[in-house]
């Protein structure tokens, strides 16, 4: 990379490492609450004005009420018998991250797809910031394209890069002369 470098890790610059166990406790309790399908009581883990920052298809929720109304309720309406399984967790100071999967039954409309009754895997990655015992920020990546494919819909219309992996398409290469 030519020129000056972009600033890295600005959000964790002042991370209070003494808060690791407290952060872990808040997030573990919140995950238990999600597995118990708690909606109205979930505020015991989140600040009222927290930010839920999701990828395309998931949205951006400002505050607890938007999270409950525009994420939790629609998600539970689309997917019943849901269980969240964090496969890995890392905690350091006021920050915690996890990736894993939810296993659920597609029992309501999802992305315009009528209920199929299929059991699906919903992969995710989460990053949480905890301040004063409450989650204030939650960055989320939920693999909705993977869910859609399990339900028989290709959101990439045959243009996903898995086509390269399968040898059905040849990936383009950058012009190395210009570099």
List the helices and strands and how they pair.
Elements: H1 20-35, E1 46-54, E2 60-62, H2 64-78, E3 79-92, E4 95-106, E5 119-131, E6 134-142, H3 144-150, H4 162-165
Parallel strand pairs: 1-6
Antiparallel strand pairs: 1-2, 3-4, 4-5, 5-6
Question: Would you give an account of this structure?
Answer:
The protein has a single domain, classed as Roll (Nuclear Transport Factor 2, Chain: A), CATH 3.10.450.50. Helices cover 23% and strands 34% of the residues. It has helices at residues 20-35, 64-78, 144-150, 162-165; strands at 46-54, 60-62, 79-92, 95-106, 119-131, 134-142. It is of the alpha+beta class and 179 residues long. The protein is flat, with a radius of gyration of 19 Å. The model has no long low-confidence stretch (mean pLDDT 94). A 6-stranded mixed sheet has the order 2-1-6-5-4-3.
Question: From the helix content, strand content and strand pairing, which structural class follows?
Answer: alpha+beta
Provide the CATH topology.
Nuclear Transport Factor 2, Chain: A
Radius of gyration: 19 Å
Mean pLDDT: 94
Count, helices:
4
Element order: H for helix, E for strand: HEEHEEEEHH
Distance between the termini: 11 Å
Would you summarize the structure shown here?
With 179 residues, the protein is α+β, with helices and mostly antiparallel strands.
List the keywords.
six-stranded mixed beta sheet; 6 strands; 4 helices; 179 residues; alpha+beta
